[in-house]
Amino acid sequence: MSVESAARGPRVYWGLNDKEGMGWIAGMTPAQAFLIIAACAPAILAMSRNQWSQTLGWGAFAALLAFLILVPIHGRPAFRWLADLVVFQTGVLMRWSPWQSRAAAGLAGPRTEPDLPGVLSRMQFPDGPEFHGSRICLLHDTAEGRWGATAKLTHSGVGMLADDECERLAARLGSMLVGLGHREVIDRISLLVRTVPDDGTEYAVWRERHQRPDAPPLAHQVTAEIDRDVASVSVRTELFVTVSGTEESLRRPAKAAGGGVAGRAYALYRLLEGIADGLKALDVQSVTWLTSTGVAEAIKTGFNPATAASLKHQHLAHPDADGTVGLPISQAGPALAPTPAARAYHHDGFSSVSYAVQPPESGTIFGSLGPLLAVRTAGERRSLQIHYEILSQAAAAREVRSNRFRNNVLIDAKAQRGFNTTAIDTRRQSGARDQEAAVAAGHALVRFTVASALTVPADWNVEDHAARLENDSSGRFRLLRLELAQDSAFVAAALPVGIGLPRLTRAFDS
Question: Which ranges does the record mark as transmembrane (predicted)?
């Protein structure tokens, strides 16, 4: 949960980098502590027998093992890197990683059956009952037992807003998250912003319908030159929101609504209007909940940005269609995803690099993520997705009490043994007290993660464009490249399906 500064000027959010599930045993989890004790045991036994040469050897081994277990390298300890590398190479050698769609293999399948790679294979997309004249596509995550829906938003952006206007939007966003936490049905909301290279398809169709044949030839020539020059560098932005709730929170209202998929849909529908009202308070101009064709197109254009033009032209050519014109969910995925690379994800003639975005310790302000969406070269696409999870009041109270108790014990133990208290310890202790006070006053505790991705054509040098994205974040945020997991990271950063926030872990979990 963020803490606001009381100083004048833009609202600053700090306390955003608190480590989740920090261990109780000197910051170690029980598994780490057990491994360290096992590594030190031979050295201690040798010392008790006055075998000093063996003590020195086992001590050096224990120190090396402790370094590999405890010291993070680019976000992960060395042992975790080794485990991830073994899993990655096993998938490559066993030919589990390469993926090809059924359509590319010439195998026909039902239009309603999804054909998606990687973590998306666990998703199902049943159609819900009618809601305001359309059948909303439900997102069913079978692995985590979550049900959700996705909407496409229209927003004018925050790049040109003044500080007080950004502060107003930030307060309204916080109020919306608090309101969702009090309902305890929908507990996750994901906001996705991604740029779209504008090839002028929509404008070309409009021009065809409104072209005046009696216009002067010079006017036609000048207009054509302007269209050609502007279309090559134009960039549009699309915005999605995905909301979801757990099977446990939806079971009782779904049973009261008739059970099954329809019952869960009705339980979600009761909250969608309230969510739409909360989004419109954030200056969102329109909220359109997506049908199965809308979700399929959002996923397809995520994998292959080049298909956006043909899909847009298809809709513009049939403006009065009732939703039957569009991409079936069976064709939402890529045609081909070859063997993944450790540092990039290749799909449908494009290459993507994904990062986890870490806010600075000094805090950040509303709208500061904008530079991560600043396209530097015509033809590249940037995506940014923020995943929020609002903890229930009971879970939030337990979490802040545990955090406050752990920090107090750590500082008291250092004081009793004569160790100095660092500024980080003091900041964490004061932040834990502030969080506990805020939760006791009725505010919500929010877990969040931010993922960013860059997508370019496969024949471009993706490392050059990735370096530009890293330069844009320099001095503002720390980008952690999610190596050995680029396919899953791409889903978290560029696709509006609500996948991207891991389950809440605690220090006592194995």
Answer: 22-44, 56-75
Residue with tokens 């109780």: 24
* Residues listed for the chain: 510
Q: Give the integer Cα–Cα distance in Å for 453 and 451.
A: 7
3-state SS record for 85-111: HHHHHHHHHCCCCCEECCCCCCCCCCC
16, 63, 173 from 431: Cα distances, Å: 10, 33, 21
- The token pair that represents 24 in the structure block: 């109780």
DSSP conformation letters of 146-165: EEEEEEEEEE--STT--HHH
pLDDT tens digits for 427-438? 777 878 888 888
CA distance 209 to 447: 49
Report the candidate in 464, 150, 113 with the shortest Cα–Cα distance to residue 276. Answer: 150
Query: pTM for the full model?
Result: 0.85
Task: Measure the CA–CA gap between 294 and 310, rounded to whole angstroms.
Answer: 14
Cα-based distances in Å from 318 to 200, 238, 495: 18, 21, 26
Rounded to 10°, the helix 52-70/78-93 angle is: 70
Across-strand partners of 237? 195
